[in-house]
Amino acid sequence: MTAVTLVLVALALDAALGEPRRFHPLVGFGRLAQATQARLYGPADMTARKRRWRGLLAVAILIAPFALVAAAVRQTLFGAALDVMLLYFAIGWKSLGEHAVRVRDALRVGDLPAARAAVGLMVSRDTEAMNAGDVSKAAIESVLENGNDAIFGAILWFVIAGGAGALAYRLANTLDAMWGYRTARYRDFGWAAARLDDVLNFIPARFTALSYALAGRTRPALACWRAQGVRWKSPNAGPVMAAGAGSLGIVLGGPACYHGEQQMRPALGCGRAPASDDIDGALALIRWSLAIWMAVLLGGSVLVRYVLP
Known about the structure:
single chain, 309 residues, two-stranded antiparallel sheet
Protein backbone atom coordinates (compact mmCIF):
# COMPACT_ATOMS: atom_id res chain seq x y z
CA MET A 1 0.00 0.00 0.00
CA THR A 2 1.26 3.47 -0.85
CA ALA A 3 2.00 6.03 1.85
CA VAL A 4 -0.84 8.27 0.69
CA THR A 5 -3.33 5.40 1.06
CA LEU A 6 -2.15 4.70 4.59
CA VAL A 7 -2.35 8.39 5.47
CA LEU A 8 -5.91 8.59 4.16
CA VAL A 9 -6.92 5.51 6.17
CA ALA A 10 -5.40 6.99 9.34
CA LEU A 11 -7.15 10.32 8.75
CA ALA A 12 -10.45 8.49 8.18
CA LEU A 13 -10.00 6.61 11.46
CA ASP A 14 -9.31 9.85 13.29
CA ALA A 15 -12.32 11.56 11.70
CA ALA A 16 -14.59 8.64 12.61
CA LEU A 17 -13.26 7.72 16.05
CA GLY A 18 -11.27 10.68 17.34
CA GLU A 19 -8.76 10.06 20.09
CA PRO A 20 -9.29 6.95 22.24
CA ARG A 21 -11.35 7.91 25.28
CA ARG A 22 -9.70 5.27 27.44
CA PHE A 23 -6.19 3.84 27.45
CA HIS A 24 -4.76 6.42 25.06
CA PRO A 25 -1.14 5.43 24.33
CA LEU A 26 0.11 9.01 24.76
CA VAL A 27 -1.48 9.21 28.21
CA GLY A 28 0.36 6.04 29.19
CA PHE A 29 3.54 7.44 27.69
CA GLY A 30 3.11 10.61 29.72
CA ARG A 31 2.94 8.59 32.92
CA LEU A 32 6.05 6.68 31.89
CA ALA A 33 7.80 9.99 31.22
CA GLN A 34 6.84 11.27 34.68
CA ALA A 35 8.24 8.13 36.29
CA THR A 36 11.44 8.42 34.26
CA GLN A 37 11.81 12.05 35.26
CA ALA A 38 11.38 11.14 38.93
CA ARG A 39 14.21 8.62 38.66
CA LEU A 40 16.63 10.69 36.58
CA TYR A 41 16.06 14.31 37.59
CA GLY A 42 18.54 14.18 40.44
CA PRO A 43 19.18 16.37 43.50
CA ALA A 44 18.52 20.11 43.60
CA ASP A 45 22.22 21.02 43.73
CA MET A 46 23.15 19.15 40.53
CA THR A 47 25.12 21.15 37.96
CA ALA A 48 23.36 22.35 34.82
CA ARG A 49 25.61 20.20 32.62
CA LYS A 50 24.81 16.99 34.48
CA ARG A 51 21.12 17.84 34.48
CA ARG A 52 21.21 18.26 30.70
CA TRP A 53 22.91 14.91 30.27
CA ARG A 54 20.26 13.29 32.41
CA GLY A 55 17.54 14.94 30.35
CA LEU A 56 19.19 13.64 27.18
CA LEU A 57 19.33 10.13 28.64
CA ALA A 58 15.65 10.34 29.57
CA VAL A 59 14.71 11.33 26.01
CA ALA A 60 16.75 8.47 24.53
CA ILE A 61 15.30 5.91 26.95
CA LEU A 62 11.75 7.01 26.27
CA ILE A 63 11.84 7.32 22.46
CA ALA A 64 14.46 5.00 20.98
CA PRO A 65 13.07 1.60 22.13
CA PHE A 66 9.54 2.32 20.87
CA ALA A 67 10.77 3.63 17.52
CA LEU A 68 13.12 0.66 17.01
CA VAL A 69 10.37 -1.86 17.78
CA ALA A 70 7.98 -0.08 15.40
CA ALA A 71 10.63 -0.10 12.66
CA ALA A 72 11.26 -3.83 13.18
CA VAL A 73 7.57 -4.78 13.12
CA ARG A 74 7.16 -2.75 9.93
CA GLN A 75 9.13 -5.44 8.10
CA THR A 76 6.57 -8.11 8.99
CA LEU A 77 3.14 -8.98 7.54
CA PHE A 78 1.59 -6.65 10.10
CA GLY A 79 3.66 -3.65 9.00
CA ALA A 80 0.93 -1.77 7.11
CA ALA A 81 -1.64 -2.24 9.87
CA LEU A 82 0.83 -1.09 12.51
CA ASP A 83 1.79 1.95 10.41
CA VAL A 84 -1.85 3.01 10.13
CA MET A 85 -2.49 2.59 13.86
CA LEU A 86 0.66 4.50 14.83
CA LEU A 87 -0.25 7.41 12.55
CA TYR A 88 -3.83 7.33 13.84
CA PHE A 89 -2.55 7.61 17.42
CA ALA A 90 -0.13 10.39 16.41
CA ILE A 91 -2.81 12.52 14.72
CA GLY A 92 -5.11 14.75 16.77
CA TRP A 93 -7.19 16.38 14.02
CA LYS A 94 -10.68 15.63 15.35
CA SER A 95 -9.71 16.28 18.96
CA LEU A 96 -8.22 19.66 18.05
CA GLY A 97 -11.44 20.61 16.29
CA GLU A 98 -13.59 19.49 19.21
CA HIS A 99 -11.60 21.58 21.69
CA ALA A 100 -11.74 24.64 19.45
CA VAL A 101 -15.49 24.31 18.81
CA ARG A 102 -16.19 24.21 22.56
CA VAL A 103 -14.39 27.54 22.92
CA ARG A 104 -16.25 29.04 19.94
CA ASP A 105 -19.66 27.87 21.15
CA ALA A 106 -19.11 29.26 24.63
CA LEU A 107 -18.07 32.63 23.20
CA ARG A 108 -21.09 32.76 20.90
CA VAL A 109 -23.52 32.44 23.81
CA GLY A 110 -21.54 34.90 25.93
CA ASP A 111 -20.42 32.34 28.52
CA LEU A 112 -16.95 33.74 29.17
CA PRO A 113 -16.14 31.50 32.18
CA ALA A 114 -16.90 28.39 30.11
CA ALA A 115 -14.84 29.76 27.23
CA ARG A 116 -11.90 30.40 29.55
CA ALA A 117 -12.17 26.88 30.96
CA ALA A 118 -12.33 25.38 27.47
CA VAL A 119 -9.36 27.32 26.12
CA GLY A 120 -7.43 26.44 29.27
CA LEU A 121 -7.42 22.84 28.01
CA MET A 122 -5.70 24.01 24.80
CA VAL A 123 -3.01 26.41 26.04
CA SER A 124 -0.49 26.64 28.86
CA ARG A 125 -1.05 30.33 29.63
CA ASP A 126 -3.20 31.70 32.46
CA THR A 127 -6.83 32.16 31.43
CA GLU A 128 -8.56 33.63 34.50
CA ALA A 129 -8.33 37.27 33.39
CA MET A 130 -8.88 36.76 29.65
CA ASN A 131 -11.55 38.74 27.83
CA ALA A 132 -13.44 37.32 24.83
CA GLY A 133 -10.84 38.61 22.37
CA ASP A 134 -8.00 37.05 24.36
CA VAL A 135 -9.82 33.71 24.43
CA SER A 136 -10.40 33.79 20.67
CA LYS A 137 -6.77 34.66 20.06
CA ALA A 138 -5.49 31.88 22.32
CA ALA A 139 -7.74 29.29 20.68
CA ILE A 140 -6.68 30.31 17.16
CA GLU A 141 -3.00 30.27 18.09
CA SER A 142 -3.42 26.77 19.49
CA VAL A 143 -5.29 25.56 16.41
CA LEU A 144 -2.64 26.90 14.05
CA GLU A 145 0.34 25.63 16.03
CA ASN A 146 -1.21 22.24 16.74
CA GLY A 147 -2.14 21.91 13.10
CA ASN A 148 1.58 21.42 12.63
CA ASP A 149 2.34 19.47 15.82
CA ALA A 150 -0.67 17.14 15.81
CA ILE A 151 -1.34 16.74 12.09
CA PHE A 152 1.12 17.85 9.44
CA GLY A 153 4.34 17.08 11.30
CA ALA A 154 3.16 13.54 12.03
CA ILE A 155 2.13 13.05 8.39
CA LEU A 156 5.47 14.26 7.04
CA TRP A 157 7.51 12.04 9.34
CA PHE A 158 5.22 9.15 8.44
CA VAL A 159 5.97 9.71 4.75
CA ILE A 160 9.70 9.87 5.53
CA ALA A 161 10.00 6.94 7.95
CA GLY A 162 6.66 5.17 8.24
CA GLY A 163 4.94 4.51 11.54
CA ALA A 164 8.25 4.59 13.41
CA GLY A 165 8.87 8.13 12.17
CA ALA A 166 5.40 9.34 13.16
CA LEU A 167 5.76 7.67 16.55
CA ALA A 168 9.19 9.16 17.30
CA TYR A 169 7.97 12.59 16.21
CA ARG A 170 4.85 12.49 18.40
CA LEU A 171 6.73 11.19 21.43
CA ALA A 172 9.33 13.93 21.06
CA ASN A 173 6.52 16.48 20.77
CA THR A 174 4.91 15.09 23.92
CA LEU A 175 8.16 15.32 25.89
CA ASP A 176 8.65 18.89 24.72
CA ALA A 177 5.12 19.73 25.92
CA MET A 178 5.97 18.23 29.32
CA TRP A 179 9.57 19.39 29.79
CA GLY A 180 10.31 22.06 27.22
CA TYR A 181 9.70 25.05 29.48
CA ARG A 182 12.33 27.69 30.26
CA THR A 183 11.58 27.51 33.97
CA ALA A 184 14.03 26.90 36.79
CA ARG A 185 12.99 23.24 36.96
CA TYR A 186 13.05 22.37 33.26
CA ARG A 187 15.54 24.78 31.71
CA ASP A 188 18.29 22.15 31.84
CA PHE A 189 16.49 18.82 32.20
CA GLY A 190 14.10 19.68 29.36
CA TRP A 191 16.79 21.10 27.07
CA ALA A 192 17.26 17.89 25.05
CA ALA A 193 13.50 17.39 24.59
CA ALA A 194 13.05 20.98 23.42
CA ARG A 195 15.99 20.86 20.99
CA LEU A 196 14.90 17.51 19.54
CA ASP A 197 11.41 18.85 18.97
CA ASP A 198 12.88 21.93 17.27
CA VAL A 199 14.94 19.76 14.92
CA LEU A 200 12.12 17.36 14.05
CA ASN A 201 9.70 20.25 13.45
CA PHE A 202 11.97 22.48 11.37
CA ILE A 203 10.91 21.16 7.96
CA PRO A 204 7.28 20.24 8.85
CA ALA A 205 6.66 23.71 10.27
CA ARG A 206 7.75 25.38 7.06
CA PHE A 207 5.66 23.08 4.92
CA THR A 208 2.72 23.80 7.23
CA ALA A 209 3.31 27.55 6.96
CA LEU A 210 3.42 27.26 3.17
CA SER A 211 0.20 25.25 3.06
CA TYR A 212 -1.52 27.82 5.32
CA ALA A 213 -0.44 30.52 2.88
CA LEU A 214 -1.67 28.61 -0.16
CA ALA A 215 -5.00 27.81 1.53
CA GLY A 216 -5.89 31.44 2.26
CA ARG A 217 -4.60 34.95 1.59
CA THR A 218 -1.33 33.86 0.05
CA ARG A 219 0.63 37.09 -0.42
CA PRO A 220 -0.05 38.58 3.05
CA ALA A 221 0.64 35.18 4.64
CA LEU A 222 4.02 34.86 2.93
CA ALA A 223 4.90 38.45 3.81
CA CYS A 224 4.01 37.91 7.49
CA TRP A 225 5.96 34.65 7.58
CA ARG A 226 9.03 36.32 6.13
CA ALA A 227 8.91 39.44 8.29
CA GLN A 228 7.53 38.14 11.58
CA GLY A 229 8.27 34.41 11.86
CA VAL A 230 11.80 34.89 13.18
CA ARG A 231 10.63 37.18 16.00
CA TRP A 232 8.80 34.44 17.88
CA LYS A 233 10.52 32.59 20.72
CA SER A 234 9.95 29.26 18.98
CA PRO A 235 11.76 28.93 15.62
CA ASN A 236 8.96 26.71 14.32
CA ALA A 237 5.78 28.07 15.88
CA GLY A 238 6.65 31.58 14.64
CA PRO A 239 6.49 30.83 10.90
CA VAL A 240 3.40 28.63 11.34
CA MET A 241 1.37 31.19 13.30
CA ALA A 242 2.60 34.20 11.29
CA ALA A 243 1.59 32.54 8.01
CA GLY A 244 -1.71 31.35 9.48
CA ALA A 245 -2.59 34.77 10.90
CA GLY A 246 -1.65 36.51 7.65
CA SER A 247 -3.73 34.02 5.69
CA LEU A 248 -6.75 34.70 7.92
CA GLY A 249 -6.26 38.48 7.93
CA ILE A 250 -5.98 38.76 11.71
CA VAL A 251 -3.35 39.73 14.29
CA LEU A 252 -2.17 37.22 16.89
CA GLY A 253 0.52 37.42 19.57
CA GLY A 254 0.73 40.37 21.95
CA PRO A 255 0.66 40.24 25.76
CA ALA A 256 -0.14 36.98 27.55
CA CYS A 257 0.28 35.70 31.09
CA TYR A 258 2.22 32.49 31.73
CA HIS A 259 2.49 31.01 35.23
CA GLY A 260 1.63 34.37 36.78
CA GLU A 261 4.15 36.33 34.70
CA GLN A 262 3.07 38.76 32.00
CA GLN A 263 4.96 38.37 28.72
CA MET A 264 5.02 40.77 25.80
CA ARG A 265 5.02 38.68 22.65
CA PRO A 266 5.57 40.10 19.16
CA ALA A 267 2.57 40.61 16.91
CA LEU A 268 1.96 38.03 14.19
CA GLY A 269 -0.21 38.50 11.12
CA CYS A 270 -1.92 41.58 9.72
CA GLY A 271 -5.41 43.01 9.76
CA ARG A 272 -7.94 43.11 12.58
CA ALA A 273 -8.20 41.59 16.04
CA PRO A 274 -9.54 38.02 16.05
CA ALA A 275 -13.10 37.12 17.02
CA SER A 276 -14.88 33.85 17.77
CA ASP A 277 -15.82 33.31 14.10
CA ASP A 278 -12.12 33.24 13.22
CA ILE A 279 -11.84 29.96 15.12
CA ASP A 280 -13.90 28.47 12.31
CA GLY A 281 -11.57 30.14 9.85
CA ALA A 282 -8.52 28.54 11.47
CA LEU A 283 -10.16 25.11 11.38
CA ALA A 284 -11.09 25.62 7.72
CA LEU A 285 -7.48 26.60 7.00
CA ILE A 286 -6.36 23.24 8.35
CA ARG A 287 -8.94 21.39 6.24
CA TRP A 288 -7.85 23.15 3.05
CA SER A 289 -4.21 22.61 3.95
CA LEU A 290 -4.89 18.90 4.40
CA ALA A 291 -6.46 18.83 0.96
CA ILE A 292 -3.31 20.43 -0.45
CA TRP A 293 -1.09 17.91 1.32
CA MET A 294 -3.15 14.98 0.07
CA ALA A 295 -3.07 16.30 -3.49
CA VAL A 296 0.71 16.69 -3.34
CA LEU A 297 1.19 13.22 -1.84
CA LEU A 298 -1.11 11.67 -4.43
CA GLY A 299 0.66 13.50 -7.24
CA GLY A 300 4.03 12.39 -5.90
CA SER A 301 2.83 8.80 -5.62
CA VAL A 302 1.60 8.79 -9.22
CA LEU A 303 4.85 10.36 -10.40
CA VAL A 304 6.99 7.76 -8.63
CA ARG A 305 4.83 4.82 -9.67
CA TYR A 306 4.05 5.60 -13.30
CA VAL A 307 6.34 8.33 -14.61
CA LEU A 308 9.82 8.01 -13.13
CA PRO A 309 10.28 4.25 -13.86
